Recover the amino acids of this structure.
């Protein structure tokens, strides 16, 4: 699943200038035209305004005027002024739904007192300056109606940089300079180089760091910031995970079991993968409690650990796939008695006594908050399951008056149909992808985290994939709640770990080592790679200084609804892998690998390119500038001299043993430029270098 960023605050900040509401924005526009005409270099050297506050470290000098507006953002090494042509306010707050800019600023040592227009509110901040960043701490909120303050800013920089804007890391950058805001706890939201805290999560005492440095130094500074402020900072083999060699190695995502582990290892070795990741449904029999799947690992954790040990002995690491906070309808947390800590998002009251057979459930209260569609994906309420006492009931319709559930299935999801009394509560169970969710405000979050981290630690996993994390936004604001289950698990891990997943927040940026460029496509594979995975997902990750991999890429055998994976698709992926210095993860099944008639050949081909990518090291990153050309079908120079691939149409035939055989030969041009034709039914040999 891809990452989705839908924070209201992100959209709010992106459309505001200086945090101001429409009235404030309009007022600022009066000065905008004249300011934009000013010479920025001269502005950078201008005398400091009276009453202004200067924040200065080794890299930057920032001047805040007495009126609370940012007057200068000067890069000291070059003397370049990076501030936008019109000054915005550095602080703001929201009270009773209205935004107020910080319009009066006074300093006393390392303290800043800020008054917010006519809101009746003032705040005290503390500034802590470090060599390459500075920290803003909200110490106090004073005035009339402090309890009505809904949110308050910790600051915002407004660089005149529009080339790259991070959606995950709050950063703006170009080739020369970068400005970034980093919250120092999970209760700080960051967006558009600004930081915000909210009443519901606590405001005073919260901190944000601001970094303004040459772009080449940004990751160095953030890594230092993580150490200095004791932020999450996973390491692999002593290296910061984002810069470890492991993030440049792909993985085989497959249904590996104790029975087929030797064959899985063989396939992974052919493709030169660094990891094998096994599906949640392969290692566990249900989501939520995550009991070990005894069909695949007959001795439970002992079998799972033995399987992982065998991979380690072969030089491979192992990843755990899970669906974050999902609870399957076949899990002990649901049947026979539902756990009361499942997430609910609507409530009604039973209007009359009902027996265990009735299929129409009357409500004494309106049902307008109960959905009418089955559960799949998205932020809207969805799913047709309700909970009364200890019985789950599945409804198919709601009557036109909105007071009765119709065509109900009683004793649903393995629960027991039972009579219920008038006045009983009717709860709607939150559902995504056919599963319920954990209420992250309850102790079930920590119980699930203990289970996952315990299996991870005891069995020796090396990687975790937090799939479906974005669905936890059903608990509340995306930027906060999506991180909570992931962090609860991460904080209990006692091994080196490579973290991936879906659902990115400012806080989980710290623990993720790289991003996955969305699910696979079974058709239009090449177009999907260029126009979505690279032009969209890969670009979004890298703009937030997050490494990426070009998975998940599906490896298919021939089926009625999709063709088999072909050699030209492998080379198509592989050339881009080299050009972007980005690995590939391959998602498939052991059955598909066995049925495909050219599996070994294609994995060997991919493995040759993988070795090239690993061998070229950091030099490959220089080719990333060609990414735009790749999306248009271009051929960047990537250490080899490829020519456009030309393949004859391929047909497949099924042999008596069930294995598929390609029926026509392919005319291929390899990375070294040599064309070769193989006889029908026999593999064409490829050489990547």
């Amino acid at each position: 699943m891809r990452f989705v960023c839908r924070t209201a605050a992100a959209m709010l900040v992106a459309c505001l200038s200086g945090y101001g509401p429409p009235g404030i924005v309009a007022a600022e526009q009066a000065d905008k035209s004249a300011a934009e005409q000013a010479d920025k270099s001269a502005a950078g050297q201008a005398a400091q305004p009276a009453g202004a506050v200067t924040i200065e470290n080794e890299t930057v000098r920032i001047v805040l005027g007495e009126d609370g507006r940012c007057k200068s953002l000067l890069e000291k090494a070059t003397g370049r002024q990076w501030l936008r042509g019109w000054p915005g306010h550095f602080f703001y707050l929201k009270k009773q739904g209205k935004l107020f800019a910080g319009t009066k600023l006074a300093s006393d040592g390392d303290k800043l007192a800020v008054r917010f227009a006519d809101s009746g509110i003032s705040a005290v901040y503390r500034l802590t300056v470090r060599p390459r960043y500075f920290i803003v701490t909200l110490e106090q909120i004073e005035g009339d109606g402090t309890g009505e303050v809904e949110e308050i800013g910790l600051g915002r920089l407004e660089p005149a940089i529009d080339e790259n804007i991070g959606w995950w890391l709050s950063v703006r950058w170009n080739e020369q300079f970068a400005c970034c805001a980093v919250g120092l706890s999970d209760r700080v939201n960051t967006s558009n180089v600004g930081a915000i805290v909210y009443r519901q999560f606590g405001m005073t005492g919260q901190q944000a760091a601001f970094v303004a440095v040459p772009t080449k130094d940004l990751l160095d500074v953030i890594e230092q910031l993580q150490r200095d402020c004791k932020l999450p900072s996973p390491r692999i083999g002593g290296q910061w995970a984002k810069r470890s060699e492991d993030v440049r190695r792909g993985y085989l995502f497959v249904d590996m079991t104790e029975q087929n582990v030797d064959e899985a290892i063989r396939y992974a070795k052919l493709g030169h993968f660094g990891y094998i990741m096994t599906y949640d449904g392969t290692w566990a029999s249900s989501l939520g409690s995550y009991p070990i799947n005894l069909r695949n690992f007959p001795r439970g954790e002992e079998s799972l650990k033995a399987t992982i040990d065998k991979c380690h002995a072969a030089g491979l690491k192992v990843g755990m796939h899970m669906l974050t906070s999902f609870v399957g309808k076949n899990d002990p947390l649901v049947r026979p008695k539902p756990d009361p800590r499942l997430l609910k998002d609507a409530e009604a009251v039973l209007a009359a006594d009902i027996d265990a057979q009735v299929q129409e459930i009357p409500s004494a209260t309106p049902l307008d908050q109960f959905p009418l569609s089955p559960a799949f994906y998205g932020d809207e309420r969805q799913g047709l399951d309700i909970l009364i006492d200890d019985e789950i009931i599945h409804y198919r319709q709601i009557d036109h008056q909105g007071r009765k559930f119709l065509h109900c299935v009683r004793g649903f999801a393995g629960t027991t149909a039972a009579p219920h009394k008038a006045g009983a509560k009717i709860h709607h169970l939150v559902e995504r992808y056919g599963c319920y969710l954990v209420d992250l405000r309850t102790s079930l979050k920590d119980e699930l985290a203990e289970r996952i981290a315990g299996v991870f630690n005891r069995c020796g996993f090396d990687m975790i994939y937090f799939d479906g994390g974005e669905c936890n936004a059903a608990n509340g604001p995306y930027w906060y709640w999506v991180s909570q289950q992931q962090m609860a698990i991460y904080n209990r891990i006692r091994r080196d770990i490579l973290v991936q997943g879906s659902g990115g927040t400012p806080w989980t940026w710290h623990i993720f080592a790289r991003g996955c460029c969305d699910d696979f496509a079974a058709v239009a594979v090449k177009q999907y790679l260029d126009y979505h995975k690279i032009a969209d997902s890969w670009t979004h990750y890298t703009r937030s200084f997050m490494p990426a991999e070009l998975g998940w890429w599906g490896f298919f055998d021939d089926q009625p609804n999709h063709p088999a994976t072909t050699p030209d698709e492998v080379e198509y992926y592989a050339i881009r892998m080299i050009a972007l210095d980005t690995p590939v993860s391959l998602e498939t099944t052991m059955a598909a690998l066995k049925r495909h008639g050219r599996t070994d050949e294609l994995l060997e081909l991919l493995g040759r390119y993988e070795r090239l990518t690993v061998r070229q090291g950091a030099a490959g990153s220089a080719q990333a500038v060609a990414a735009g050309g790749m999306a248009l079908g271009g051929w960047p120079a990537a250490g080899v001299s490829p020519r456009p691939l030309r393949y004859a149409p391929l047909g497949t035939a099924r042999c008596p043993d069930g294995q598929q055989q390609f029926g026509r030969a392919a005319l291929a041009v390899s990375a070294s430029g040599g064309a070769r034709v193989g006889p029908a039914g026999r593999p064409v040999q490829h050489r990547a270098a």
In short: Residues 344-429 form one domain.
